[in-house]
Amino acid sequence: MGKFPAGFLWGGAVAANQCEGAWNVDGKGVSVADVARFKPDVDKKDYVAQWHTSPADIEAALKTENEVYYPKRHGIDFYHHYKEDIALFQEMGFKTFRMSIAWTRIFPNGIEEQPNEKGLQFYEDVFKELRKAHIEPLVTLSHYEMPLYFVTHGEGWASREVVDHFVRYAEVCFNRYKDLVKYWLTFNEIDSVFRHPFTTVGIVEENYPSKLKAEEAIYKALHHQLVASALATKLARQINPQFQIGCMVTKTMTYPETCNPKDIYLAQKDNRMNSLYTDVQVRGEYPRWIKKEWSDKGFEIPMAAGDEEILKLHTVDFISFSYYMSMVQSVHADQREKVGGNLATGVKNPYLPTSEWGWQIDPEGLKISLIDLYDRYQKPLWIVENGLGYNDQVNPDGTIDDDYRIEYFQSHFEQIAEAIADGVEVMGYTSWACIDLVSASTSQMSKRYGFIYVDLDDYNQGSGARRKKKSFDWYKQVIATNGEDLSHE
Q: For the residues 50-64, what does the mean pLDDT come to?
């Protein structure tokens, strides 16, 4: 097994909309996450229904202050518990902590002339607390929490003016935190525009006359985000040349079911689509095939003068990605058993185990993904999301024996080490999520990821107290030995 390099950035990750709570405190505005409803009557594997937000859903959400059925409004109250939580991360030995800034905490509707000072001060306090704990912040500017105003007063990211509002927001953050934050990500899982367009780019599909028109709007929104990301990258380097700017995508490795060339071609198409987003942000240009696809479908993707030059000139320093599962493609997909997570639905791989929420666990797929990405781009890589959602149970004595989580991480870390031994440059690893929080896809608390248990259930019942799981001390051991001791007894 290969060795993790000196200075490897071990840590954990969260998102503001899933952990902060305090959704209407200190001047914060309403984000798309604040209208995401917990739907207990929907099967937990029906992720389309869980993610989808209709115009009627938005209208209903804006009429209520309810936090039980809108659990991202309460999260785990990191807003008031951040010192306690950071102390636990420090105890584990974190070298880095990935978090996001809630745009609506800085600009409540996204359009204000002046930022909200209380929001700015909150993040300054968090970053200073992290620095005091010798933990390097890794900060995402947009992680599924865009201002709802852009949805109710426009077409979300399909409206070009959102680019300018985002760049102004980024500029405020870069200037305010230029001495506290070194590593930045612009957009979380920018490829998720088609999995959940409302959450990612504020597109409400019912507002379009056809699925084809909605798809065209999503591509417009994607282009605007890619331009905004490049402009933010340009600005960041002007404000502090020491900043390191990364893109962030979901790595969905797709295998062919068989060696049938038709299966191989279908898998290749899926993998090529997955590479579209990194191709633009790393190579600085759209691949020919996507422009041809737009033309074939009659799509008009307006590009302002200079857009393509902006993309070319302001590419990223490193590639970060989430990895949870691999997929399988088959020409006989309609005749095969299916599995699905919040990432996608595909043919079941008989060689892999499946989690309680339908995710197929594939550690070797992570090694393959690392090699695939590094061979394609020769850029440093950072795994910023990877983890196991599980309905953890508390023992009568208060302990939580999550050996299954330890085994999950152990197998994935072994594969990262093998990729490093194979010549791949890996900067760091932040588990998703290092502390229990509200699930992005199902809005549940019971889908737990953390090394730290939070005493809240799906209906916001509980004390909110933090409790270490068995995996807490195991991960502490891993970090202390820089990945050399992965033993588990």
A: 90
280-307 CB burial, b ≥16 within 10 A, e <16: bbbebebeeebeeeeeeeebebeeeeeb
341-390 residue pLDDT tens? 555 677 888 888 887 777 889 999 999 999 999 999 999 999 999 999 99
Beta bridge partners of 321: 249, 383
- Alpha helices, DSSP H, located in 297-348: 307-313
> One of 20, 145, 189, 205 is an active-site residue; which one?
189
d(C-alpha 64, C-alpha 76), whole Å: 20
- CA–CA separation, 282 vs 377, rounded Å? 7
Q: Is pLDDT above 90 for 40?
A: no
Q: Is 385 a catalytic residue?
A: yes
Q: How far apart are CA 29 and CA 145, in angstroms?
A: 10
Residue 432 CA to residue 320 CA, distance in Å, equals 13
Structure tokens belonging to residue 170: 């980024």
Residue 309: CB partners within 8 Å, gap ≥ 6? none
Catalytic entry in 20, 155, 216, 385: 385
Average pLDDT over residues 309-323: 98
Q: Is the CATH number 3.60.9.10 carried by domain 9-480?
A: no
**Spatial separation of the C-alpha atoms in residues 20 and 367, rounded to whole Å:** 33
The tokens describing 209, both together, are 């006359």
Res 225 pLDDT > 80:
yes
Tokens representing residue 452 in the block = 């730290």
pLDDT interval class at 51 (50, 70, 90): confident
Q: How far is CA 135 from CA 37, 40, 93, 233, 349, in A?
A: 34, 37, 9, 23, 39
- Residues 59 and 53: their CA atoms lie apart, in Å, by 10
- For 117-148, how does the pLDDT look when each residue is reduced to its tens digit (9 = 90+)? 999 999 999 999 999 999 999 999 999 999 99
What is the model's pTM?
0.95
Cα–Cα distance measured from residue 334 to residue 316, given in angstroms and rounded to the nearest whole number: 39
Structural contact between residues 408 and 356, judged by C-beta atoms closer than 8 angstroms: no
User: Is residue 259 packed enough to be buried (19+ CB in 10 Å), middle (13-18) or exposed (0-12)?
Assistant: exposed
Where does residue 207 rank: exposed (0-12), middle (13-18), buried (19+ CB within 10 A)? middle
